[in-house]
Amino acid sequence: MAKENNSLTTEFILIGFTDHPVLNILLFLVLFAIYLITMVGNLGLVALISMEHRLHTPMYIFLGNLALMDSCCSCAIIPKMLENFFSEGKMISLYECMAQFYFLCLAETADCFLLAAMAYDRYVAICSPLQYHTMMSKKLCIQMTVGTFIASNLHSMIHVGLLLRLTFCRSNQIDHFFCDILPLYRLSCTDPYINELMIYIFSMPIQIFTIATVLFSYICILFTIFKITSKEGRGKAFSTCASHFLSVSIFYICLLMYIRPFEEGDKDIPVAIFYTIVIPLLNPFIYSLRNKEVINGLKKCMKNYNIVK
């Protein structure tokens, strides 16, 4: 029986969306376009923040790392989806599956910490503007960024290590478009109780801490904004955090919808599409379209490039 289990764990089949050839071509084209736009938008934002010295502030350093993690999320999910549209077997090996989940978990965990750090940055900028450079020093910004990646890596490695203890003797068909943790639990013939317990022990505190940080920051921001008497002052204060508030609201609404009892099944696929594909696509536009500093930095870089040419 042990040998049979080991043979079943070597490969999985990703069911995906559809087997209809016309729909496969249409979905391939749509997802390929989304992938290109996502990568150009996010990596372009990372490059712009790196090149433009005026964007070397805590908020934009966090934003650059957020864009990098969104790129990581897209790279973990979409290329395999594109391949499977024209693959007869739609196979993914056990170690590819673990790697896919690792990078997805890394990106999503880092997003939680980075969005919380950005909320704290906006809190300091609006509620304590005179102390901003002291409270949000370069050293603290680096420590928060490094801490984010260390915690995210450890969190991902713990869950991947626990997944490797499971054996899969029921089926090798994953009813999803990527190797997510809940569909893998449903395929396991080993009781995933310990894995589920570790989710509550490690993942829930991360969610509680980051959500509490965001809520506390924005409650303080709102109280401070309402104390401002002039309309121009209020408008300026709102504009400094509007993009982040929109991004963090979309992210946590999707995440909270996805964190549901383990028996929910296929109902989590539409939400998974949104937080693994749509959010990484939207974030560069949310943070760039109405951001004068980003637009001015882009214009400056384009102007300098034209001069060099």
Main attributes of the structure:
309 residues; mainly alpha; globular; disordered N terminus
Structure write-up:
The chain has a 3-stranded mixed beta sheet with strand order 2-1-3. The protein is built from 11 helices and 3 strands; from the N terminus they run H-E-H-H-E-H-H-H-E-H-H-H-H-H. Mean pLDDT is 86; it is low at 1-6. The protein is 76% helix and 3% strand. The longest helix is centred in the C-terminal third of the chain and has 35 residues, at 193-227. By secondary structure, it is mostly helical.
Q: Could you give the count of β-strands?
A: 3
Structural class: mainly alpha
Measured as a percent range, the helix fraction is over 70%
Total number of helical segments?
11
Tell me, rounded to a whole number, the average pLDDT. 86
Work out the strand percent: under 5%
Strands across the major sheet, in which order? Answer: 2-1-3
Evaluate the radius of gyration.
Answer: 21 Å
Distance between the termini: 67 Å
Question: Could you name the ranges where pLDDT drops below 50 across 5 or more consecutive residues?
Answer: 1-6
Largest sheet: 3 strands, mixed
The shape is globular
Instruction: Tell me the series of helices and strands, N- to C-terminal.
Output: HEHHEHHHEHHHHH
